[in-house]
């Protein structure tokens, strides 16, 4: 991702906590699996360019999704963390199908790198 000195914070919460963040910052109702808060965008992004932002993951939603998908919890958490990090770098799967495809390809690439390391 061309960011060898990048820094982020990771917060693992339950569904009620992520639902509050989802409503407050995204004006969406209910829990979600992951929310990213990029710090490399906006008026003051140049103050700390190594600070990527915050990734918040709901452990409850992740567990449910892992079970429904037949994958392990660590595997699902890795997927969600990679997804959140991609959002910090400006990837957006909701903008268009093309952007969603681009994000999915990058996600798969990064997960393969992690599996092979």
Task: Provide structural commentary.
This protein is α+β, with helices and mostly antiparallel strands and 117 residues long. It is 50% helix and 17% strand. It is built from 4 helices and 3 strands. A 3-stranded mixed beta sheet has the order 1-3-2. Helix 2 packs across helix 3 and helix 3 (73-88) crosses helix 4 (97-115). It starts with 6 loop residues before the first strand and ends with a helix.
In short:
The protein is an alpha+beta fold and 117 residues long. Helix content is 50%, strand content 17%.
Widest sheet: strand ordering: 1-3-2
Alpha-carbon distance between the two ends: 16 Å
As a percent range, the share of strand residues is 15-25%
Beta-strand segment tally: 3
Estimated structural class = alpha+beta
**So what's the oligomer here?**
single chain
Overall, the morphology is: globular
Query: Strand count, sense and closure of the main sheet?
Result: 3 strands, mixed
